[in-house]
Design brief:
By secondary structure, the protein is an alpha+beta fold. It has one domain: Gyrase A, domain 2, CATH 3.30.1360. 43% of the residues lie in helices and 19% in strands. The chain is built from nine helices and eight strands. The strands form three sheets. A four-stranded antiparallel beta sheet has the order 2-3-8-4. A two-stranded parallel ribbon has the order 1-5. A two-stranded antiparallel sheet has the order 6-7. Helix 1 packs across helix 3, helix 7 runs antiparallel to helix 8 and helix 8 packs across helix 9. The longest helix is centred in the middle third of the chain and has 27 residues, at 138-164. It is globular and about 65 Å long. The relative contact order is 0.22.
Protein backbone atom coordinates (compact mmCIF):
# COMPACT_ATOMS: atom_id res chain seq x y z
CA UNK A 1 0.00 0.00 0.00
CA UNK A 2 1.30 3.47 -0.82
CA UNK A 3 2.29 5.69 2.04
CA UNK A 4 -0.06 8.62 2.56
CA UNK A 5 1.22 12.21 2.89
CA UNK A 6 0.25 12.22 6.57
CA UNK A 7 2.72 9.37 7.19
CA UNK A 8 5.60 11.08 5.41
CA UNK A 9 8.75 11.18 7.55
CA UNK A 10 10.02 14.58 8.57
CA UNK A 11 13.35 15.35 6.88
CA UNK A 12 16.44 15.20 9.08
CA UNK A 13 19.69 17.05 8.56
CA UNK A 14 23.32 16.07 9.06
CA UNK A 15 26.70 17.73 8.63
CA UNK A 16 28.88 14.63 9.15
CA UNK A 17 29.76 11.46 7.23
CA UNK A 18 29.91 7.81 8.27
CA UNK A 19 32.84 5.55 7.41
CA UNK A 20 33.01 2.02 8.85
CA UNK A 21 35.59 -0.64 8.03
CA UNK A 22 33.36 -3.64 7.31
CA UNK A 23 35.99 -6.27 6.51
CA UNK A 24 39.57 -6.48 5.38
CA UNK A 25 42.48 -8.68 4.42
CA UNK A 26 45.15 -6.03 4.72
CA UNK A 27 48.48 -5.91 6.52
CA UNK A 28 52.08 -4.93 5.90
CA UNK A 29 52.92 -8.63 5.56
CA UNK A 30 50.85 -8.70 2.35
CA UNK A 31 53.20 -6.16 0.80
CA UNK A 32 56.31 -8.05 1.95
CA UNK A 33 54.96 -11.38 0.71
CA UNK A 34 54.17 -9.97 -2.74
CA UNK A 35 57.47 -8.11 -3.08
CA UNK A 36 59.83 -10.86 -1.93
CA UNK A 37 58.44 -13.51 -4.23
CA UNK A 38 60.38 -11.71 -6.98
CA UNK A 39 63.74 -12.55 -5.44
CA UNK A 40 63.18 -15.24 -2.81
CA UNK A 41 60.29 -17.29 -4.10
CA UNK A 42 57.48 -18.35 -1.76
CA UNK A 43 58.07 -17.56 1.92
CA UNK A 44 55.99 -18.02 5.07
CA UNK A 45 54.68 -15.09 7.10
CA UNK A 46 56.93 -16.20 9.94
CA UNK A 47 59.98 -15.86 7.70
CA UNK A 48 58.82 -12.46 6.51
CA UNK A 49 58.53 -11.08 10.04
CA UNK A 50 61.93 -12.21 11.34
CA UNK A 51 63.67 -8.90 10.57
CA UNK A 52 61.43 -5.87 11.33
CA UNK A 53 64.03 -3.31 10.22
CA UNK A 54 64.50 -5.08 6.92
CA UNK A 55 60.73 -5.20 6.42
CA UNK A 56 60.42 -1.49 7.12
CA UNK A 57 63.27 -0.74 4.74
CA UNK A 58 61.78 -2.86 1.95
CA UNK A 59 58.39 -1.18 2.19
CA UNK A 60 60.01 2.26 2.18
CA UNK A 61 62.12 1.28 -0.86
CA UNK A 62 59.03 0.11 -2.74
CA UNK A 63 57.19 3.33 -1.91
CA UNK A 64 60.13 5.61 -2.69
CA UNK A 65 60.96 4.00 -6.04
CA UNK A 66 57.28 3.57 -6.93
CA UNK A 67 57.10 -0.20 -7.23
CA UNK A 68 53.35 -0.22 -6.88
CA UNK A 69 52.07 -3.74 -7.52
CA UNK A 70 53.03 -5.24 -4.10
CA UNK A 71 50.61 -2.75 -2.50
CA UNK A 72 47.69 -4.25 -4.44
CA UNK A 73 47.64 -7.68 -2.74
CA UNK A 74 45.18 -6.71 0.00
CA UNK A 75 41.58 -5.60 0.35
CA UNK A 76 39.50 -3.23 2.48
CA UNK A 77 35.73 -2.81 2.34
CA UNK A 78 34.15 0.32 3.81
CA UNK A 79 30.53 1.21 4.50
CA UNK A 80 30.09 4.90 3.71
CA UNK A 81 27.14 7.21 4.28
CA UNK A 82 27.51 10.67 2.76
CA UNK A 83 25.73 13.16 0.48
CA UNK A 84 25.21 12.03 -3.11
CA UNK A 85 27.52 14.74 -4.45
CA UNK A 86 30.36 13.14 -2.47
CA UNK A 87 29.71 9.80 -4.17
CA UNK A 88 29.74 11.39 -7.60
CA UNK A 89 33.25 12.68 -6.93
CA UNK A 90 34.20 9.37 -5.31
CA UNK A 91 33.30 7.34 -8.38
CA UNK A 92 35.80 9.19 -10.54
CA UNK A 93 38.26 6.85 -8.83
CA UNK A 94 37.89 3.64 -10.82
CA UNK A 95 41.20 1.76 -10.91
CA UNK A 96 41.30 -0.64 -7.98
CA UNK A 97 37.84 0.31 -6.64
CA UNK A 98 34.51 -1.51 -6.51
CA UNK A 99 31.23 0.16 -5.52
CA UNK A 100 27.70 -0.86 -4.64
CA UNK A 101 25.35 2.00 -3.75
CA UNK A 102 21.81 1.86 -2.40
CA UNK A 103 19.26 2.03 -5.18
CA UNK A 104 16.50 4.59 -5.60
CA UNK A 105 14.92 2.26 -8.12
CA UNK A 106 14.21 -0.51 -5.63
CA UNK A 107 13.56 1.24 -2.33
CA UNK A 108 11.96 4.40 -1.06
CA UNK A 109 14.73 6.81 -0.12
CA UNK A 110 14.86 8.22 3.39
CA UNK A 111 14.72 12.03 3.87
CA UNK A 112 18.21 12.65 5.28
CA UNK A 113 19.99 15.69 3.91
CA UNK A 114 23.27 17.58 4.21
CA UNK A 115 23.55 21.05 5.72
CA UNK A 116 27.08 22.29 6.47
CA UNK A 117 27.91 23.16 10.05
CA UNK A 118 29.48 26.40 11.24
CA UNK A 119 33.01 25.09 10.67
CA UNK A 120 32.44 24.63 6.93
CA UNK A 121 33.99 27.56 5.00
CA UNK A 122 31.31 28.97 2.72
CA UNK A 123 32.92 31.70 0.60
CA UNK A 124 35.18 31.08 -2.38
CA UNK A 125 37.65 33.83 -3.26
CA UNK A 126 39.91 33.98 -6.31
CA UNK A 127 39.76 32.59 -9.82
CA UNK A 128 39.46 28.92 -10.84
CA UNK A 129 42.68 27.06 -10.18
CA UNK A 130 43.83 29.73 -7.75
CA UNK A 131 41.18 30.24 -5.12
CA UNK A 132 40.72 29.80 -1.41
CA UNK A 133 37.74 29.29 0.86
CA UNK A 134 37.14 31.62 3.77
CA UNK A 135 34.72 31.76 6.67
CA UNK A 136 31.21 32.88 5.91
CA UNK A 137 29.34 35.44 7.94
CA UNK A 138 26.67 34.42 10.40
CA UNK A 139 24.08 35.79 7.98
CA UNK A 140 25.47 33.59 5.19
CA UNK A 141 25.43 30.56 7.46
CA UNK A 142 21.83 31.18 8.48
CA UNK A 143 20.81 31.77 4.87
CA UNK A 144 22.51 28.56 3.72
CA UNK A 145 20.85 26.47 6.41
CA UNK A 146 17.40 27.94 5.85
CA UNK A 147 17.41 27.82 2.06
CA UNK A 148 18.82 24.30 1.91
CA UNK A 149 16.31 22.98 4.47
CA UNK A 150 13.39 24.59 2.64
CA UNK A 151 14.57 23.23 -0.70
CA UNK A 152 15.05 19.73 0.69
CA UNK A 153 11.57 19.68 2.24
CA UNK A 154 9.96 20.84 -0.99
CA UNK A 155 11.84 18.28 -3.06
CA UNK A 156 11.01 15.39 -0.74
CA UNK A 157 7.34 16.37 -0.59
CA UNK A 158 7.26 16.31 -4.40
CA UNK A 159 8.94 12.89 -4.38
CA UNK A 160 6.40 11.44 -1.95
CA UNK A 161 3.50 13.02 -3.83
CA UNK A 162 4.55 11.22 -7.00
CA UNK A 163 5.05 7.92 -5.17
CA UNK A 164 1.58 8.22 -3.64
CA UNK A 165 0.18 8.82 -7.10
CA UNK A 166 1.70 5.56 -8.32
CA UNK A 167 4.70 7.01 -10.18
CA UNK A 168 7.64 4.60 -10.32
CA UNK A 169 10.44 5.17 -7.82
CA UNK A 170 13.02 5.43 -10.59
CA UNK A 171 11.07 8.36 -12.07
CA UNK A 172 10.05 10.10 -8.84
CA UNK A 173 13.63 10.19 -7.53
CA UNK A 174 14.54 12.65 -10.29
CA UNK A 175 13.37 15.57 -8.15
CA UNK A 176 15.69 14.73 -5.24
CA UNK A 177 18.83 16.85 -4.71
CA UNK A 178 22.47 15.79 -4.57
CA UNK A 179 22.57 16.93 -0.95
CA UNK A 180 20.56 13.84 0.00
CA UNK A 181 22.44 11.13 1.88
CA UNK A 182 23.13 7.82 0.21
CA UNK A 183 25.11 4.80 1.34
CA UNK A 184 27.47 2.37 -0.34
CA UNK A 185 30.08 -0.31 0.09
CA UNK A 186 33.44 0.68 -1.36
CA UNK A 187 36.24 -1.88 -1.72
CA UNK A 188 39.82 -0.98 -2.55
CA UNK A 189 43.42 -2.00 -2.05
CA UNK A 190 46.16 0.05 -0.42
CA UNK A 191 47.54 1.35 -3.70
CA UNK A 192 44.17 2.64 -4.89
CA UNK A 193 43.46 4.12 -1.46
CA UNK A 194 46.80 5.95 -1.47
CA UNK A 195 45.95 7.46 -4.85
CA UNK A 196 42.58 8.55 -3.47
CA UNK A 197 44.12 10.10 -0.37
CA UNK A 198 46.75 11.92 -2.41
CA UNK A 199 43.99 13.72 -4.31
CA UNK A 200 41.21 13.99 -1.75
CA UNK A 201 43.02 15.13 1.39
CA UNK A 202 45.25 18.04 2.30
CA UNK A 203 48.30 17.12 4.35
CA UNK A 204 51.44 18.92 5.44
CA UNK A 205 53.64 16.05 4.22
CA UNK A 206 52.20 15.98 0.71
CA UNK A 207 54.71 16.88 -2.01
CA UNK A 208 51.91 17.63 -4.46
CA UNK A 209 49.28 20.00 -3.05
CA UNK A 210 45.63 19.05 -3.37
CA UNK A 211 42.49 21.12 -2.84
CA UNK A 212 39.61 18.68 -2.33
CA UNK A 213 36.05 19.59 -1.53
CA UNK A 214 35.77 19.44 2.23
CA UNK A 215 32.99 16.85 2.33
CA UNK A 216 34.92 14.19 0.40
CA UNK A 217 38.01 15.04 2.43
CA UNK A 218 36.01 14.17 5.57
CA UNK A 219 35.42 10.70 4.13
CA UNK A 220 39.07 10.37 3.15
CA UNK A 221 40.27 11.31 6.63
CA UNK A 222 38.13 8.61 8.24
CA UNK A 223 39.26 5.96 5.76
CA UNK A 224 42.86 6.96 6.39
CA UNK A 225 42.45 6.45 10.14
CA UNK A 226 41.30 2.86 9.59
CA UNK A 227 44.03 2.09 7.06
CA UNK A 228 46.81 3.52 9.25
CA UNK A 229 45.98 0.95 11.93
CA UNK A 230 45.92 -1.97 9.49
CA UNK A 231 49.19 -1.21 7.67
CA UNK A 232 51.35 1.04 9.87
CA UNK A 233 54.62 0.48 7.98
CA UNK A 234 53.00 1.15 4.63
CA UNK A 235 51.22 4.18 6.02
CA UNK A 236 54.46 5.60 7.48
CA UNK A 237 56.25 5.10 4.15
CA UNK A 238 53.39 6.79 2.29
CA UNK A 239 53.77 9.90 4.47
CA UNK A 240 57.57 9.84 4.47
CA UNK A 241 57.63 9.81 0.67
CA UNK A 242 55.31 12.75 0.10
CA UNK A 243 51.95 10.95 0.07
CA UNK A 244 52.34 9.99 -3.59
CA UNK A 245 50.83 6.64 -4.54
CA UNK A 246 53.44 4.22 -5.96
Amino acid sequence: MSETPAEMAEPSFRSDVTVELVKHTAGDSDVLWAARVSTAGEQSLEELSKDPDRSKGLINFLMRDRHGSPFEHNSMTFFISAPIFVFREFMRHRAGWSYNEESGRYRRLEPVFYIPDAERKLVQEGRPGKYVFVEGTQAQQELTGRVMADSYRQAYEAYVEMLDAGVAREVARSVLPVGMYSSMYATCNARSLMHFLGLRTQHEQAKVPSFPQREIEMVGEKMEQHWAKLMPLTYAAFNANGRIAP
